[in-house]
Amino acid sequence: MSDMYTGSCLKEAIARMQDPNYKPGGSKSYKCNLCNDKGYIATTLSGEKKKLTDVLSSQIDYVRPCKCQLEKQMYSKMKYSNIELDQYEKKSFETFKRDTEEADKMYELAYKFLESDAQGVGFFGKSGTGKTHICTAICNELAKRGVQHRYFNYRTDIQRLKALVYKHEEYNALINDFKMATVLYIDDLFKLSKNSNGEMNIQEMQIVFDIINSRYMNKKRIIVSSEYTVAEMKQFDEATAGRIREMIDDLGMKVEGVNRRFKQLRIKTA
């Protein structure tokens, strides 16, 4: 995994991108003192790394992007994702607690997804077991690698889509964001979709199928978290469940550990 930005380094990188007046070390001229805002670092024929402004073109062997360019790419991916920027800092692989066998398996599964060309990865089961944390950590790593990703907060975004169903242009623009993003992270899939009679909301199921089917057909990658397992989804939406099952293949995991939110609360109030 990338170790370019961790902990406070990530926080500093985001701060640099958010502050248009940021000047490192009190510099009056440049936002980046490494490359003097050229965006690239030169490697000379003798192997030295220098600013483009400090070397003749005839002495250059090759150039590579400066760290500031990588920061810009990372920041643009974070902004597009719809994940709050502070969540990237809070929910990373570094902050994910691998204190149980189950947590270790979650971490390893996330790592396997990142290092493979698998179409999907999914974490299913109890609330508070770290599903959202590990999925956001994957997005964190995608941002560092410059990979576009989009966050679908199920309860919030499904309501936005339902409200726009009869406003075709706006609806299509929004749903196409979710269909076509390089990687889509669906958080808490089908959360609160059942009514008081235990029946699933048909409109929500139709919208979800449309998104999942499009990504399935176009070989777009997904990250999924849900309190429902795929087997449970099959009971009310076999078509969607079947596609998710095929997309995640062997990168699906049922989590059954303790609710960490309540565990942390007990520690704080003990």
From TrEMBL:
GO terms for biological process: DNA replication. InterPro entries: DnaA_dom (IPR013317), P-loop_NTPase (IPR027417). The keyword 4Fe-4S does not apply. One of its GO terms (molecular function) is ATP binding. SUPFAM superfamilies: P-loop containing nucleoside triphosphate hydrolases. Keywords: ATP-binding, Nucleotide-binding. The keyword ATP-binding applies. It holds the Pfam family Bac_DnaA. Residues 121-244 form the Chromosomal replication initiator protein DnaA ATPAse domain. PANTHER family: CHROMOSOMAL REPLICATION INITIATOR PROTEIN DNAA, PHAGE-LIKE ELEMENT PBSX PROTEIN XKDC. This is ATP-binding protein. It comes from Zhenhengia yiwuensis. The lineage of its organism: Bacteria, Bacillati, Bacillota, Clostridia, Lachnospirales.
